[in-house]
């Protein structure tokens, strides 16, 4: 199966959903919505909206779940995959994105990065510039 490298700038449709497989591997599922906009006579108009199902794995899945929320604007790098649709009534194929990296977009907001706590096998000295906190200070209830 061919996977096409893709970069996406869009907004999260909902909070990422985190699950753990039976072998303990973390998986985060979330949808990124992209709306094409253009200006006509000084007014912004929307042409259409595309929603892409995204999947992040392992540590990235944990970080996405802890850091990103519905409505957040994100910049995402991944691989676009075409798969057979599970619904017979819809298109024969569906597209999803295997996420390689994702971050908050800084175009319309400020972000204060905080390093993730070190794993049990690492020491705090391994992250000399990091601020270790149990919950990000901006976490929404």
Notable traits:
141 residues, 7% helix, OB fold (Dihydrolipoamide Acetyltransferase, E2P), five-stranded mixed β-barrel, mainly beta
List how many beta strands DSSP finds. Answer: 6
The tally of structural domains comes to 1
Helix content: under 10%
Low-confidence stretches: 123-134
The spatial strand order of the largest sheet comes to 1-3-4-6-5
> Could you state the order of secondary-structure elements as H and E?
EEEEHEE
Give the C-alpha Rg. Answer: 18 Å
Largest sheet: 5 strands, mixed, barrel
The geometry reads as: flat
Find the CATH superfamily. Answer: Nucleic acid-binding proteins
Number of helices: 1
Distance between the termini: 41 Å
Structural class by secondary-structure content: mainly beta
Q: Could you tell me the CATH topology label.
A: OB fold (Dihydrolipoamide Acetyltransferase, E2P)
**CATH class annotation:** Mainly Beta
Q: What percent strand? A: over 45%
Write up what this structure looks like.
By secondary structure, the chain is mainly beta. It has one domain (4-110): Beta Barrel (OB fold (Dihydrolipoamide Acetyltransferase, E2P)), CATH 2.40.50. 7% of the residues lie in helices and 48% in strands. It has one helix and six strands; from the N terminus they run E-E-E-E-H-E-E. Strands 1-3-4-6-5 form a five-stranded mixed β-barrel. Strand 3 and strand 4 form a beta hairpin. The protein is flat. The model is unreliable at 123-134 (pLDDT under 50).
């Amino acid at each position: 199966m061919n996977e096409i490298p893709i970069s996406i700038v869009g907004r999260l449709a909902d909070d990422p959903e985190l699950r753990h497989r039976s072998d303990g591997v973390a998986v985060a599922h979330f949808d990124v919505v992209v709306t094409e906009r253009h200006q006509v006579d000084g007014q912004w108009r929307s042409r259409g909206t595309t929603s892409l199902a995204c999947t992040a794995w392992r540590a990235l899945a944990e970080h996405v779940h802890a850091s990103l929320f519905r409505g957040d604007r994100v910049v995402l790098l991944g691989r676009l995959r075409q798969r057979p649709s599970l619904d017979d009534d819809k298109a024969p194929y569906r597209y999803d994105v295997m996420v390689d990296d994702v971050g908050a977009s800084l175009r319309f907001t400020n972000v204060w990065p905080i390093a993730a706590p070190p794993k049990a096998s690492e020491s705090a000295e391994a992250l000399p510039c990091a601020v270790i906190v149990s919950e990000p200070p901006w976490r929404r209830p």
